[in-house]
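Late entry, written up from scratch paper. The run itself happened at the end of the previous shift, but nothing got recorded in the book at the time, so transcribing now.
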Amino acid sequence: MGAAPPPAPAVTHWHAVLVAGDTAQPVFDNAVKAMGLWLVEHGVPGAEVHRLAASADGRDPSLEPATLKRVLDRIAGLQARPGEGCFVFITSHGAEDRGVYLAHDEEMLRPAALAQALDAGCGQVPTVVVVSACYSGSFARGVMARPNRIVLTAARPDRPSFGCSAERTYTDYDSCLLAALPHAPTWQNVFAEARACVRAREHQVGERPSQPQASFGKAVRNLPSQF
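Output as recorded:
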């Protein structure tokens, strides 16, 4: 018989960074707003939910500008302690082999830079990272993979994802992820449900499958998705 899976680490307090990287369509801002509300409703203190957006213009004091430096500094500055956890949600456009687009200053967030910021701000604590963008699968491998880290992405490194439209509320992946969160017991279940939902939507409209990707570190493989 195989070895029993490791017990899920206990997390008593979460720190969250939510990033809407572009303003070309409202879907990214909508997803960050919905994710922030969901986190607060499930016990994450509002003061620990940091929202950054390309649309930040000073009228909403809770929004910080989503520049590359501000995003990386915010994540690196979380300083999570033992018993705490980090949650990072980034939704935007993506480019193959270039990373995630941050429209505020026309910059690209790359896996190596994100991994370095996570190492600084989250260390060895349980960490969940969602990168929702075209070609985002590059964030689920290499330097981003850690034993304490779960990474969920919207597409393979060489595939686009879909739903970036002014007529939509969320992208396909964000919609499926938000739909899975209320009832999926673990992050593995969240990923499986979101992937199946995306696959069904793409099949219905005849799109080439985006094939969402994930990486589950051995220390957090069974981490509950309920905050």
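The longest helix spans residues 187-205.
(Scratch paper discarded after transcription.)
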